[in-house]
Write a structure and sequence with these properties.
Structural class of chain A: alpha+beta
Largest sheet of chain A: 6 strands, antiparallel
Distance between the termini of chain A: 16 Å
Shape of chain A: globular
Radius of gyration of chain A: 14 Å
Order of helices and strands of chain A: HHEEHEEEE
Oligomer: homotetramer
Number of strands of chain A: 6
Amino acid sequence: MTVPTLTEPTDPAILLERIRQINTLAAFNRWAGISVMHATEGEVAIELPWKSELGQYSGFLHAGLIGALIDTVCGFAAATVAGRVLASHFSVNCLAPAVGERFTARGRVTRAGKRQIFTTAELFAHQGAEQKLVANGETLLMRAVE
Amino acid sequence: MTVPTLTEPTDPAILLERIRQINTLAAFNRWAGISVMHATEGEVAIELPWKSELGQYSGFLHAGLIGALIDTVCGFAAATVAGRVLASHFSVNCLAPAVGERFTARGRVTRAGKRQIFTTAELFAHQGAEQKLVANGETLLMRAVE
Amino acid sequence: MTVPTLTEPTDPAILLERIRQINTLAAFNRWAGISVMHATEGEVAIELPWKSELGQYSGFLHAGLIGALIDTVCGFAAATVAGRVLASHFSVNCLAPAVGERFTARGRVTRAGKRQIFTTAELFAHQGAEQKLVANGETLLMRAVE
Amino acid sequence: MTVPTLTEPTDPAILLERIRQINTLAAFNRWAGISVMHATEGEVAIELPWKSELGQYSGFLHAGLIGALIDTVCGFAAATVAGRVLASHFSVNCLAPAVGERFTARGRVTRAGKRQIFTTAELFAHQGAEQKLVANGETLLMRAVE
């Protein structure tokens, strides 16, 4: 993913606010209903309530949405440390059927280099008070060149 | 992805018709506007016209949609040889900005084993008569156990 | 990787001994000098002292060895919970130059399903008392069918 | 992998000679017995004769060697178009047991960008006149910064 510049984020409240602004800039994120729950330096959490348009053949969350959540939360985590970034590569493991009334994804930066940011993420399905790990994945991003 | 059973597909017209039926069963595919252009044993092509709800921050195709197209076309290609399948792992390389008036993805089976199906796909952006490779990727699927 | 059967491992000392036996069965592991440091259910650690034949162009650990360590430790971790397994897919992130007097890899099972085992691993370079994360990766394995 | 600089390769014979020089610089490649068969702009082929030290538990080619061949041939293919490169990420699909009297890997550049080079490779096992696809994979490399 591509995200606008974040310059010198220090105040946690400002950082969260900026990631939320970035999220609302993406038309697909607005349509899907993705919201940002948490953002600190190198770690972000997002949430997506279930709706039927998000489903595949069996009515589970579509793999495209699983990928979208993992790529999005990884990109946000990278943005908290590196500002504008672009995804080069991402991968997803489908660990269990993605069924739930809402989904949360947590992403974090594994390593932030001069040019590349390595990130990883986990996706959970929630049903009432129950939480289940349904996917994990990773995204390799490049710092954008101005 | 998970797709319903295809049993002994032989007639090409029937095979294409079945993959089209599977496609219409997925609510997300209907919302996004994915259609099936081509389906033979081991090879499928799909198409997605651009609309603004599919975009990310810069107005390019969202990485989630790039992943959705690659996973979908790989799953369809696997379904032409293996019937009901489930994706275990998929990965995407973002080769160039995904900008265009429509997108096409071509997937094919690399190897169909007794339990696993390996597939690969390419995603093209189209603008008028021009076509550009913007992403590639792969999906590893399991044959569904009845 | 492919490993021989482990049946109902319960005693930790027996489990460690069995993983060590598997390790010595692999000619390449013996040549490279890989040893098993730790093995509990779902988690294994291995070690490799540096020698010049393990190097690439710059004298760092060759990517093939980085992959070998990650695939090996993931396979051992899977073997502690699933007995005989075969790798389907593995991937490696090269986070930093792999330079050190010895290397350790830690692998663990993320999810053990009926047919598939998902694992993840980290590779550290050691120089004296210093330890540095130089790579991470993952392996998707199938339970072997008897 | 990391490879030394190639500057403006034009003459095919010189290009092949340069890739062969790079190959002999890697101690592990010399130990394993990897040789370069073919090198043109964006495409390289390498060969590895079987010997027992290359084996895993069942006497098949060790996954580390499968990864080494794929990463090496991808790095060489990238070097023909981009000079000095460093691998960021590589992945391998194990399609069939890697058994044979020799192995060949063919790598090619999918896209060479300003900073990143995307490559893909296939690995074949040979027994007499028979050839079998046993693995495929990909490597994402960065152009080295001087």
